[in-house]
Amino acid sequence: MVDGKCSKRYLRDLLAETITGNDGYPLYRRRSVADNGRSVVVKVKGQNVDVDNRWIVPYSPILSKAFETHINVEYCNSVKSIKYICKYVNKGSDMAVFAVTNANDEISQYQMGRYVNSNEAIWRIFSFAIHERYPTVVHLAVHLENGQRVYFNESNAADRAARPPSTTLTSFFTVCQTDDFARTLLYADMPRYYIWNASSKSFQRRKQGTPVEGHPNVFASDALGRIYTVHPNNDECYYLRLLLVNVRGPTSFKQLRTVNGQLCATYREACQLLHLLENDSHWDDTLKDSVISSSPHQIRTLFGIIISTCFPSNPKVLWVKYRDDMSEDVCIVCAVKL
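RESULT FIELD:
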């Protein structure tokens, strides 16, 4: 078993018996020709090389024949030896960058190459999972009525406009119309009890999992629902999302805007009736106190600070209530000019 690549590692002095070196590595018996050792002349690159027992790698003939491959075998009797051997097994994958140049093309095409080490190769051979995510997270769409994303071409544009595809939100409304249990859930709770079927674009009850007490044929899982975020600048969609987080079992966009039997004109108005928005009474009192002793210019400045940094829920109401006080000096100037 001659291994040229390992020659520097195993090339030792000739020894009559195996001994342990000072560094913990064994110095194997490598008999000289005079001590029944062997020697052979090997031609390497046109030159004759004398190969003797110093070039022989430790091996097991039984293992080599059984696995039909070259297997190094060493006896480890120190931590250094174990560390040296195991680092080849556990060092992980590596990566290399190489170039492929086409003689007829001025542009060099670069490709990424990698090799798989022994432990990763075994993992793949046995078809073990490469990665997993737990628990399952289902992203839930949020959009205004008839505001879902639609993909179309020239041939199906009219059909897609007349019958837009269902989304997780519209399917949630549909399930709540016929399923009593779904009407007890929030939008984000749906993936825990229902599976989203991407092919039919609909929610379907889970058939496996933990049974829900008091609800036959209803099973729960560890799946999580995550509603896409909406920037407050997209105000109506933002307030729609706020309602979906707090209202259970809505059956339609219209029903979502209905509060105590009253149909609201906007989703923002519905949020206000449900007290989901911050009360503006604090800013009302602030402006009321400012009117007593401040000039119109100072009141306008205060109002600008409130609407730009404090985010009142209904700045229009504050403006209508205090606009005369904020514009008093402007009206006086206009009257004098006239």
